[in-house]
Amino acid sequence: MSRFFSRISTCMQTRHRSSAKTLFQPQTMAAVPLQKETKPGLYHAPPEVRGMISLDREAFAREITVPALRVPTRVLNKVVKSLKKATIKRPGVARVVQEGEPCSSDGGDFRLVLLDPLRMSSPSSFTEEEAEALRSLDVPEELQNHEMRLTYDNLKTEEVLEAVLPQGQEITSGFSRIGHIVHMNLRDHQLPFKNLIGQVIMDKNPGVTCVVNKTNIIDSTYRNFKMEVLAGEEDMVTKVKENGVTYEFDFSRVYWNSRLSTEHMRVVDQTKPGDIVLDVFAGVGPFAIPAARAGATVLANDLNPESHRWLKHNVKLNKVEKSVRTFNLDGRAFIQGPVRQELPALLKGKANIHVVMNLPALALEFLDAFRGLLNKELSCDTNLPIVHCYGFSKDDDPQKDVEVRASSSLGFCLEGRSSVQFVRNVAPNKEMMCVRFTVPKEVLFNTDDEQTDPIEEPASKRQKCGETSH
């Protein structure tokens, strides 16, 4: 094995000679942003709601004036269609209201089409296309004022929060929706208003019945985090549909990240019917089950007993029991146990072998489990396992950083033999990456006669290396 470390030393020296940075485009995420309006707002909250801790919906009501167009009912539908970009757009506010006075000329009546006050200040605000449509329908381009009452129900989430939080404090935030649960990461200045924020989020998002806030960092063993309920019922068993697959799980006891749906499919799309997928940190199955549905045979493992329980449940729920075998082992024990036992036969076949290692906080450290995994070299050059291993990086060059760390763990230089994919930005200066490579023969096969047993890690290290998919 000493020559492995000689090669890895050479590989690591090249890290500091590389000055080129790779530019990455982040994926579309499943989080829902709360963005401030950049234009002057239609709604100006009463000053007394500033600093409100307990939500009083009635206090947000306000009388406002908006421009309106008086339109005969006989052409109403055509006018509304022609002015769809000019009409008011506000939750719970109708674009058309009763005008009230009958039309004496034809016995019909009129309606008022409410217009967007941020765009329509005078008849000249109509585009030429809109003005031409009104002329063709014999509708005068004359605006009148309409008094209306905006209530809490008509307000957007950001409007409520901007009105309540102290002036100058950031209200832009985001959340992830997991079935009926919304998960938030509130900042310190938002915590005094946490219950109000939770109630507003629940009010403004139909189907949400529970809002939670993460209270500490993710647990290092089972990858779940402590949370507090901000609003709604404490019902943590939820159902999620992702990429056509249904998952059920207890969100308080397993790890689930809605932002990874695109990444799950990116990797699954690289498998073909008949391929083998070895999922080392399977969680509740977001890689394993879609791969099985796509025709792969899957060995899926997770250390967290709750994740393993819900993994088995979701395998049955999606009717892929014949294609998925599940295990409740430490990741290293899974590689050096079931994977080691299955590999000799798998390497003789024609199916591609994919190893998914989605535990970005620790997965790179587990790559050493492949060193000398098999003690007898087989006549196989083209069917070696393809690894998809995830890691976090705070380095200026995350692509190189992850490649070098993978090389160090393997004891083999991967320069020129791997590709690194940007997955998502986790925090400022912290990125999640995926390094993809074929396990080299020099790593997988043990050529040292004395070393025939799996590499043992100290008990302290095994204890911290728990896992659930991230």
Structure, described:
Helices cover 24% and strands 24% of the residues. The protein is built from 12 helices and 18 strands. It has helices spanning 2-13, 76-82, 128-136, 157-164, 194-204, 261-268, 288-293, 305-317, 331-348, 398-410, 441-444, 459-464; strands spanning 32-34, 62-72, 96-102, 109-114, 143-150, 173-178, 181-184, 210-214, 227-232, 237-242, 245-250, 276-279, 297-301, 324-327, 353-357, 386-393, 418-427, 430-438. Strand 10 (237-242) and strand 11 (245-250) form a beta hairpin. The relative contact order is 0.12.
CATH topology term of the domain at 2-29 and 259-464: Rossmann fold
Distance between the termini: 32 Å
Q: What is the level-2 CATH architecture name of the domain at 2-29 and 259-464?
A: 3-Layer(aba) Sandwich
**Helical element count?**
12
Q: What features would you highlight for this structure?
A:
single chain; 470 residues; alpha/beta; Alpha-Beta Plaits; 7-stranded mixed beta sheet; 18 strands; 24% strand; elongated
Write the SSE topology.
Layout: H1 2-13, E1 32-34, E2 62-72, H2 76-82, E3 96-102, E4 109-114, H3 128-136, E5 143-150, H4 157-164, E6 173-178, E7 181-184, H5 194-204, E8 210-214, E9 227-232, E10 237-242, E11 245-250, H6 261-268, E12 276-279, H7 288-293, E13 297-301, H8 305-317, E14 324-327, H9 331-348, E15 353-357, E16 386-393, H10 398-410, E17 418-427, E18 430-438, H11 441-444, H12 459-464
Parallel strand pairs: 7-8, 12-13, 12-15, 13-14, 15-16
Antiparallel strand pairs: 1-6, 2-4, 2-5, 3-4, 6-7, 8-9, 10-11, 16-18, 17-18
Helix pairs in contact: 1-10
